[in-house]
Specification:
globular, Arc Repressor Mutant, subunit A, DNA binding, Tscrpt_reg_HTH_GntR, mainly alpha
């Protein structure tokens, strides 16, 4: 792997609970903005200096990032950004969508009035605000209500390990019409759950997270983090075709 020294930008970061969370969000930002790319060594010392924290929380953040498949440790050489391409994004959101669809199906089957009331309140609040951080919080709370109501400890634990993938409000800050898409997604999921249609609720969840992944891939290509896909090959002319001879 190539060791590359990079100039690190100052973090654009609101308050988060711990130094490890700060470091985790910042390193994710470096990866998702292309400052650090696949094969680059993660400069622990420099990150600690930029964030004005010790190296220990940075190392803790890297453990979390390794679980997400964003970094990998290479023996004594250090920690490097893992291969980061469209398949990384696509696989994450396809898997996450499957887990969320399972939870949505169970909640729809149960039709607990208290859960429906909570989901309606969150969706209504999301429609009334344009604050990106607040809509992000509400979208997370919406899925948490569903996941808790699904009453499956193993499912909640697995989902929790996959929840924090992009940095902060990255999706809502960078994807065109993201606020509208987020609100529409919440409304579509709520309607399916209210209708008591488990198949539709599961399908809406799958589609929502699939679309999220594809929009992120599109954005990352637009800013040069991912290369454009190669052009489709020109089909060969049919055998024996008349070429004007």
């Amino acid at each position: 792997m190539t060791v590359v020294r990079v100039g690190l930008p100052k973090p654009k970061l609101a308050y988060v609970p711990s130094s490890a969370d700060v470091a985790s969000d910042y390193i994710r930002t470096l990866v998702f903005t292309g400052v650090l790319r696949g094969g680059n060594k993660v400069p622990i010392e420099e990150i600690a200096q930029v964030l004005n924290i010790s190296r220990q929380p940075v190392r803790e953040a890297l453990i979390e990032l390794s679980h997400d498949g964003l970094v990998q440790t290479d023996g004594r050489r250090g920690t490097f950004v893992a291969d980061f391409g469209p398949s990384t994004i696509r696989d994450h959101y396809e898997l996450y969508g499957l887990l969320q669809s399972f939870a949505a199906r169970r909640v729809t089957q149960d039709r607990d009035p208290a859960v429906l009331t909570a989901l309606r309140a969150i969706e209504r609040e999301a429609r009334s605000t344009v604050d990106v951080a607040e809509v992000t919080r509400l979208a997370i709370e919406f899925t948490r209500v569903i996941n808790r109501a699904a009453d499956n400890t193993r499912l909640r634990l697995v989902i929790k390990t996959m929840t924090r993938f992009t940095p902060g409000e990255y999706y809502l800050n960078n994807i065109p019409d993201a606020l509208k898409r987020s609100r529409t997604g919440l409304r579509s999921q709520l309607r399916a759950i209210e209708a008591g249609d488990p198949d539709t609720a599961a399908a809406v969840s799958l589609k929502t997270w699939h679309t999220t992944g594809e929009e992120l891939i599109k954005h990352l290509r637009s800013i040069g983090v991912f290369p454009d896909p190669p052009p489709a090959p020109t089909p060969a002319p049919p055998s024996g075709a008349n070429h004007g001879l």
